[in-house]
Amino acid sequence: MGQQHLAGPVVTVALVEDHQVVVDGVRSWFAPPTPVELVAQGPTIESVRGTAADVLLLDLNLNGTMVVDRVAELCAGGQRVIVFSEHEEPEIVRRVLDAGASAFIGKGRATRESCLETILEVAADRPTVTPPMAQAIATDEGPHRPQLSDKERAALLYWFQSMSKASVAARMGIKERTVRQYIDRARVKYAAAGRPAPTKEKLLICAIQDGLVRPDEVTVYTSLAAQAPADRRE
Amino acid sequence: MTEEIEQVARRYARYTALGAVVIAGVWHLGYDLTVTLTGWSSFRWPWVALAAWVLYSAIFAVGALTLSRTSRGPGRILELALATLAVDVAVIVASRPEELLGISDWGWGSIGWIGVMLTWGRPRWRTEIIAFLSANAGIMLAAMAVAGALDRVSIAKYLVVIAGGVTMQLGYMAGCHLLRTRAEETVLLARKLAADDAWRESAQRIHADRLRRYEAIRDVAESLLTQLADGADPGDPRVREDCTAGAMRLRRLITEREDVPDELVSVLRERIDAAERRQVLVTAPPFGEHLPALPDGVREDLLRAPVRALDGARTRARVTVSAMSTMVSVAVVADNDDLPISPTPVHEASGVVVSYQRLGGEVWVNSIWQGPS
């Protein structure tokens, strides 16, 4: 499901969420004329499995059980997964991104606009960075962390801690477009440095097509076609 | 309490070690020196015996010094042990063959105590002392064979002295080792109990604090539900805001996982609570569990400006903490209209840099500490 690029103007979404009030809220966000349609929802991963959807929106805590470990399995088939959770701790965000999730939306700060924007970007395989992701990527000190430039790291941290990308631009004395570029490049680098997953490959391909990075800047990506899965992580 | 127990254990180690020194010293002065001097004429080469006594004294001094300083034998003992065995051989050689098992051949009965001092408290003390005492017994047996003193009476005398010496020396070592081990076990147990107590106490404090906050939220929720039941309009922005605020506070309580919150986090939580009591809608993503240790004064400098922004928030605020092993960044975004802001970053003496920005009716205050990497 959801293997191809957007076929039409409407992005289809499946939602795994065990609280009806959240389901209702998300459904109201997707009400027409938004270009997003909720095609399936259920309280467990199994309840939406088999439904073709461009994006799977996944709550991490289902009936009291954290399903962090199942993200990799969902992404393995190329499904774009956006995690939608209040568990915004950087460690958890990094785990789901490493597993191949395309984005992480924090329930605490999510708005209709930001949520829709993230879904549309993810559906188009474009890099998207929500505030919890910015914090998780900027503070990664793991052995396989990407080599971020000082400006990329600062842009991520300020984006997480300020009110808007405009304020980050003012703080750094640069254009807002450049702030976006720093943040998006950091996201692409993070995808390239993590474990391989089909969803990350799509993101990297798009980033190259869009001219955000050059192919030779994504060393992991260029080696993907030639190397065995075990060799892909750097 | 734990400290007292640790002190007792340290004393055990120290005084049992000094006990070995005292025994060896008294033996060497009281017996070895006496028989060397009083039996001067019975030696074949009395000066050799005296030189051996002096060498023994030197090795004793080295051992005593180490034991008094560290309560354990010297780091390197092979040379000292060989020199001690040389004392044994020297006294044997200085004695007349017929005096081999007599009282003036003091070396073989005495050097065991030097062995005790040298191997005291070392990790492989059992193997080392047994090897040393066996070498001593072997040297004496070899000397008896050379002197032709392997008759029944000589062998019996030999066995009595060896058995007596070995029993005293090994017995003392084993007894003291047992005492020391028990004392150390007691210390470990005391430390564990103290750690458990501290953990339990802090967990109880946090639990009580959470219960208090749950109760506060329950009161808010109850009043909201009563308002709704009494016909309050769910579409009313004020009611919706109150519901959102309650949900935020509940969410924060749910995601708090740490057993012992960092001091910086505790201060922020306290100020967030205070802001919420003033009906300020506060969002604060989880603060994380791994904040680095901060040098003196850094925490205060990190908190001062953001807390002031939070305390003056009119209706809403967002509090964030980002941390790495050598960096902590605290930020508050709030609709605080009165906060005086500096157009340029403020550098505190502690190294904390505070930046201010006002944009679209909100102020963003961000203090960052970068430690040495």
From TrEMBL, chain A:
One of its GO terms (molecular function) is DNA binding. The modification 4-aspartylphosphate is found at D59. Residues 12-122 form the Response regulatory domain. GO terms for biological process: DNA-templated transcription initiation; phosphorelay signal transduction system. Keywords: DNA-binding, Phosphoprotein, Sigma factor, Transcription, Transcription regulation. Pfam families: Response_reg (PF00072), Sigma70_r4_2 (PF08281). Belongs to the sigma-70 factor family. ECF subfamily. This is LuxR family transcriptional regulator.
